[in-house]
Amino acid sequence: MLRLPSSLAPKFSAPKRSVSNSVKNALYIDRGLLVLNKPSGLVCQFNRNEQGEGIGDDFQAVVHDLREQFDLKDDLYPVHRLDKRTTGALALALSPAHAQSLAQQFESRSVEKSYLALVRGGIRSFSEPKGTIRSGLTFVDGRLWLDAGRPSDKKAKIVRRVAETDWEVLASSPTVPLTLVRLRPDTGLKHQLRIHMAQNLNTPILGDLLYSRSKLSSKITDKVDVYPDFMFLHSSQLSISRYRRTGAHKHVRVTIGAPLPGYFTRLCAKVKILLPAELATGGLWIDGERMRPQTIHVVQQPEEGTLAEIPRQSADDVAHKLEGIGGRWVGERL
């Protein structure tokens, strides 16, 4: 495994206890932002019930470990949400001021979000290789309303909002009716991607038991084991604006890619869906350029039958690009 120099390595304070798995899932940190590769099952918000007892205790523990590991003074603030069983890139702000700034980016839709989903249905389930879904969603007292008609409670607060999702087929299994799609939500409404795939395209996300209209086909269950605890929806990439404090070009576009969980990649391999390497392993992009801190890359020259060495960025080059925004890649690899 590639070892990053001290300029890129996280500067830890002496840990008081062992590092949690969630801390190991940290990918990127700068002066105001930390991006975590969220595991399945984690509720990423601080909720309280009527008695004031925490029901987000697991998330509180994760935040505690991250603060301790990265020697952070303030609390961490989630600026967007991922469903409990959705995995992948989750943005956390390092202070209230940064939380407000990042939240404004999400609200103005300047943050580009890309998801990967394994959906039920083969290549014939899609009339086109890509498209856009635009539909209205109804919320009653803050909760999503799926049934037609008006709720019986006339005092209920009803809000109707338009949700829009771009989708693209990346690969389809030749052995079972499963397809890998990339989803780019233009809006960020609750359960938007799950509803659009299940009810608009009739290709529900594998493992989504709430919005699917049919039972899992034996064409799938006879070939692979699908565990009910996992939903195959992954926040693959977040592209966010960051700013240097000095210099002529202060604006920097940082894209953080979260590696796919092992159960996702193993199932894709079993059903012969080829995953693009950059999506499977994640990584870091600065202004659209992927950062790879290795000095050379050996490639085959087919027309000559020889090997050539193509220079890549050094680890110091990556550190220099991140220096102005106080950024560090803290994931296992780039």
Give an overview of the whole structure:
- The structure is a single chain.
- The protein is an alpha+beta fold.
- The chain has one domain (22-292, 325-329): Pseudouridine synthase.
- Helix content is 19%, strand content 31%.
- The protein contains eight helices and 16 strands.
- The chain has helices at residues 21-24, 57-69, 96-107, 192-200, 218-221, 262-270, 277-281, 315-323; strands spanning 26-29, 33-38, 77-78, 87-93, 112-120, 130-140, 143-145, 158-172, 178-185, 233-243, 251-257, 283-286, 289-290, 296-301, 306-311, 328-329.
- A hairpin with a 4-residue loop joins strand 14 and strand 15 (306-311).
- It is globular.
Quick description:
The protein is an alpha+beta fold and 334 residues long. The protein has 8 helices and 16 strands. The protein is globular.
Strand-helix topology:
Blueprint: H1 21-24, E1 26-29, E2 33-38, H2 57-69, E3 77-78, E4 87-93, H3 96-107, E5 112-120, E6 130-140, E7 143-145, E8 158-172, E9 178-185, H4 192-200, H5 218-221, E10 233-243, E11 251-257, H6 262-270, H7 277-281, E12 283-286, E13 289-290, E14 296-301, E15 306-311, H8 315-323, E16 328-329
Parallel strand pairs: 4-10
Antiparallel strand pairs: 1-2, 1-16, 2-4, 3-4, 5-9, 5-10, 6-7, 6-8, 8-9, 10-11, 11-12, 12-13, 14-15
